[in-house]
What does this fold into?
Amino acid sequence: MSDRVILIDKPPGMTSFGVVARVRRVLSHRAGKKVKVGHCGTLDPFATGLLILVTGKECRNAMRYTKLDKVYEATFRLGQTSTTGDPEGEIMPYVASDELQGAESLPLLKQPDAAAVKYVLAQFVGDIKQRPPAFSAIKINGQRAYKLARSGKKVDIPERAVTIYALELLDYAYPLLKVRAHVSSGTYIRSLAVDIGEALGTGAYCQELRRTQIADWQVSQAQKLADFGIES
It folds into this structure.
């Protein structure tokens, strides 16, 4: 059983690589030899939910799993922005771009009603162009974008085509907007939060993120790290 797929419910505050390293250590100890383990589709440290791990020869098929559609539940905080698009960045009050010049004080933001939110969400369903976050694992000239961003270098990531199959409003009570998003591989929910915030005129960042499904696999099928004797 060394060549297989393992479904993990990733806890918050841990990188996907951290999950892999911990599971590899346990499996290698059980097998009495080093077991190859990889993950298929990164989850940000603040995010939780379904993470596919592959072991042994199944690692050869990692890209096949990475390219599958995904479903997320996310909470966006309106009225503020983050340098990383999530809670780990510098959080700032939102200022519309046309109000940046000469603004002596921050303008009072108009809180969009539910009808406005539903209208804006509908505009993001379908094939869209999206710019991935500067703080991401995308490679630019052989280097990870987040490493360049952390060193203070300018990161220019081109837009990419992604598909939002469905974007469902789950709850809204300003400033918190909770959605369920069924998306294609390569979609960044952090970027979706930022773009929706801009469209609403409030700014936004992704405060909470949970991946609930990858293709037909559900997070309810996943194991916890505690099942491997790993403390999270």
The chain has five helices and 13 strands. The radius of gyration is 19 Å. The first strand starts at residue 5 and ends at 10.
